[in-house]
Structures are given as C-alpha cells and as structure tokens.
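User: Hello! My lab partner asked me to get a predicted holo structure for this protein. The small molecule is manganese (II) ion, SMILES included with the sequence. Please write out the structure tokens.
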Amino acid sequence: MQNVVILGSTGSIGVSTLDVLARHPERYRVFALVARQRIDRLLEQICTFRPTYVVVTEAEPAETLRNRIRDMRIACEVLTGADALAAVVSAPEVDIVMAAIVGAAGLMPTLAAAKAGKKILLANKEALVMSGALFLNAVKDGGAQLLPIDSEHNAIFQCWSANAIGQAPSVAGVEKIQLTASGGPFLRKPLSELNEVTPDQACSHPTWNMGRKISVDSATLMNKGLEVIEACHLFGASAEQVDVVIHPQSIVHSMVRYLDGSVLAQMGNPDMRTPIAHALAWPERIQSGVAPLDLTQMSALQFEVVDRERFPCLTLAYQALQAGGTAAAVLNAANEVAVDAFLNNRLRFTAISDVIAATLAKVSAPTIGSLAELLAIDAEARLIAATQIQLRAA
Ligand SMILES: NC(=O)C1=CN([C@@H]2O[C@H](COP(=O)(O)OP(=O)(O)OC[C@H]3O[C@@H](n4cnc5c(N)ncnc54)[C@H](OP(=O)(O)O)[C@@H]3O)[C@@H](O)[C@H]2O)C=CC1
Ligand SMILES: CC(=O)[C@@H](O)[C@H](O)COP(=O)(O)O
Ligand SMILES: [Mn+2]
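Assistant: Hello! Below are the structure tokens for the protein in complex with manganese (II) ion.
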C-alpha cells in the first residue's frame, strides 16, 4: 500500500487523481489533501477518502472546515500554515506526492517533497519553470523520483526509449522533441477580435477541461511556452531541440523524433487520468477509467505551423529560455500576474503579452544563487508587472 499526498486536491488535476486512486484501493491510500479555500469540495473528498490530514493554506476556511469536521465526528486533522504543509509532504509514511497546486504557490511544498526523497508526480509546471536547476538539484540531492504529469511531457517520457530514460537527447539518439498544442479557443478567431475576448471565452478550451489559469495560458500559447522550458529541464534538451506544432484535436500528445528517422508519438483521448495513472504506477500499467481511443471514429488529425503573430507569448518564452538565468522566473511571474488581471477584468487579453514583454525588459535576471534570491526576483517581477497593468488601465 502506498500513501499519497495531493497538493491541490480540489482542482482539475486533484479531482482526476482521486478518480484514479479510487479505482485502486488495494494499491493507494490518501494520506493528506491540500487546498486553499474550496471547503465544500474538500469536505466531500474527506468523507470519501478519509485522509489522516488535510492542509488548508488560508486560515479562515481552515477554521470553518475544522468546525464542520468536528460536528460530523470525522477523524481527520485540519492543519494550516507553510510549516504544516512541509511537514505533511515530508512525513515518513508518505510515498507519493502529486504536485498540482497552480502557479508559484506550489514551489515550496514541491521542493519539500524533493528534499524528503518522495516520488513526485509533477503537474505544477510553473514551479519547475521558475526554479529550474535549483529544483532538479533538490530532487537529485534528496533522492526523489520525478515523473511528468503534464500530458506532453508524460507523452515524451513514454516515447523515450525505455533503456535511455535519464539520458540527454544526444546520448539517447533523439533529434527533436515535438510538443503538440491545441491552439486553444482562439486558433481561428480573426486577430482583430482578440482584443475583446472575455475570461469565460478564453477558458472554454476546445479539448481539455482544466482550471482557469492554465486555460488562459492555453489560449495565449504561454502554456506551450512554459512547456518548452519544462521539456528542456526534464529531458536535458536545448531550446533548439524543442519544437511546437499545432494539433487541434489533442489526440497526439507529443512526439519524439530520433536520428534514424523514427518518430514516436503517444496518443489517447484528451483526459488527464491517462498520464496520472501512468505516472502513479510506472513502470507498471493500471486502469485509468479513460475510454479507449478509436481512430476509425474520428475526423482527420491535423498538424500546422504556429502563427507567431497570433501567439506572441510563445516567442517570449523562447526568448526567456535563450536569455537563461532567472529570465524564465520573471516570465512566469509576469504571466501569473497578467493572467490574474485578465481573469478579473483588469487587463485585455491582447495586453497579457505586452505586460510580460515589458516586465522581461525591466527586470534583470541573473543566474540563480539561492532560493532566497529566486523568491526576491519573483517578487520584483510581480511588482513590475502590476505597475505595467496599472499603466495600461490608465
Ligand atoms: N488541468 C489540467 O489538465 C492540467 C494542469 N496542469 C498543471 O497542474 C496545475 C494545476 O492545474 P489545475 O488543476 O487545472 O488548476 P485548478 O485551478 O483547477 O486547481 C488548482 C488547485 O490548487 C489549489 N491552490 C491554488 N492556490 C493555492 C495556494 N496558494 N496554496 C495551496 N493551494 C492552492 C486550489 O485550491 P482551491 O480549489 O481550494 O482554491 C486547487 O486545489 C497547474 O500548474 C497546471 O499548469 C498541467 C497539465 C494539465
Ligand atoms: C492537458 C495538458 O497537458 C495541458 O497543458 C494541455 O496541453 C493544454 O492544451 P494546449 O496548451 O495544447 O491548448
Ligand atoms: Mn500540457
């Protein structure tokens, strides 16, 4: 029996993870659930999965939940605060940590899991993008195991020759990693109309059902930009070795092209329970609940070149990657602030990329020395991005 902690249990990935775990009660037990504020959903999860602990990062909802659990006489301890979060993730009973908090907020608990040598299922791409080598060194030093949940990276992992896992592309015979991008809800929208799109339109993803922040990232293609950086870190690739191709159907989840001309692709219906089940059980295979793929029942699969004028965020991500140092952390911080402003009707969709470009130009991005330095640069980038948003509101 393996004990699992889910960081971000109330979100899209958290719910899919619990769905897979529920199919395998003989293999997995939920040790702890972590969320920020969605108490009603968390309470339902507690009733179903009976974790030993829950951590609610906001103090007021934590107190509300504590009272409700006491009234219902459920044996589950409700904790709050950063120390409690790190302690739960690092507890000796814990085998697996699903890192599915959205954004930079997920960095500290995921780092704690790395230092404690856990098996980490990494959905939270922002943590890796912002901290890069610092996080990978913590994984190595802590003796942790890192498995990708992001559908493209899980696909690449599955397409990497089994006997070359852990080797850099040049050693593994890999020529190119090709990430597929759906193109999001605005792939065919006239460019002149992008200025007026609403948060709900941006969050109506054509193929995946996801949280609001990553949905907006898909609509700008910043999601793919973050994924290019994520792929470089996870697979030891250079920016030149990672390409993006538009594939509106989201059936091919990514491809690996080898030196001998072979291209390996991983396919499946767009449902995150497949990569979750894959990483949970790897190197074994378990049921995920995902319907089998029937290619005879689908329309043609399309592949297209990315229109860089429509999607300037992808170019910004490649620029940050080439710049090196903490530029990717600045990119990520500015994007988080700009997307939040867009979702709260304080910024136009088309201005998201302007705010990120202006922030990248204003914040110097030296190579990371320490976690404290990284957090300082993240905070500085957020302040500059907020100023840029105010300038555009004026
Ligand atoms: N959804 C998907 O299909 C995919 C997601 N990912 C990545 O996985 C991560 C999660 O995405 P998704 O599930 O869609 O996001 P959601 O917005 O659906 O869920 C986010 C989760 O994080 C919790 N959370 C948010 N802020 C904090 C905080 N400050 N402290 C603690 N918990 C917090 C939320 O709690 P609460 O609900 O209480 O607010 C919720 O449980 C992202 O990094 C995303 O990029 C990657 C690939 C696919
Ligand atoms: C499911 C998943 O991994 C998302 O990151 C997905 O990739 C979003 O779709 P697009 O970014 O391709 O629109
Ligand atoms: Mn993805």
